[in-house]
């Protein structure tokens, strides 16, 4: 498998990246344990012009500053003071586009993911929802800013990275629709920026 290069993330259209992330595999390594899952649902956020984006109107805060980093950087934020949500920064430096990873299908580190979830078995919706994604992969909001284009060089090194293992998403099984939980964004809430493999 090949670690996805920065050039994949630095492209101009965040919706293209969000769609093409489907079928890719996100991996984490924490405390020497690797976990991973196939990305099956994403949402695109188009920066300063997108009212659903944290960077709308060129907003820059200590939390959102990482959105202005180079494509291929992790943006992880705390939602409702409980859930860490994992996003992939896209586009060039100073263009704050990002893709939220909403759902995964586990492929590695099953026992660790079950332990993190507190469940005894992996049910159908085990990796559904961005809060669950971060929880079972061990991603915490303190991991914001990590470089997603570098695989950890040893078992003691922590990291998040994405790989392309050659899986092909068959044409016709991707569904696009409005994003979830962004009603405050007015007309932008209706944009078909959510992509799912079904």
Question: Can you characterise this structure?
Answer:
The protein has 198 residues and is of the alpha+beta class. It has one domain: 3-methyladenine DNA Glycosylase, Chain A, CATH 3.10.300. Helix content is 14%, strand content 31%. The chain is built from 4 helices and 9 strands, in the order E-H-H-E-E-E-E-E-H-H-E-E-E. Strands 1, 2, 3, 4, 5, 6, 7, 8 and 9 form a 9-stranded antiparallel β-sheet that branches. A hairpin with a 3-residue loop joins strand 4 and strand 5 (83-90). The protein starts with a strand and ends with a strand.
> What's the mean pLDDT score?
95
Shape: globular
Strand content: 25-35%
SSE ordering: EHHEEEEEHHEEE
Spell out the CATH superfamily: Methylpurine-DNA glycosylase (MPG)
Radius of gyration: 16 Å
By CATH reckoning, the class would read Alpha Beta
CATH architecture, by name, is Roll
- Main beta sheet: 9 strands, antiparallel
Q: The CATH topology, please?
A: 3-methyladenine DNA Glycosylase, Chain A
Number of helices: 4
Tell me the total number of β-strands.
9
Which stretches are low in confidence, meaning pLDDT under 50 for 5 or more residues running? none
How far apart are the first and last residues' alpha carbons, in Å?
24 Å
Helix percentage range? 10-25%
Number of domains: 1
Helical/strand content category: alpha+beta
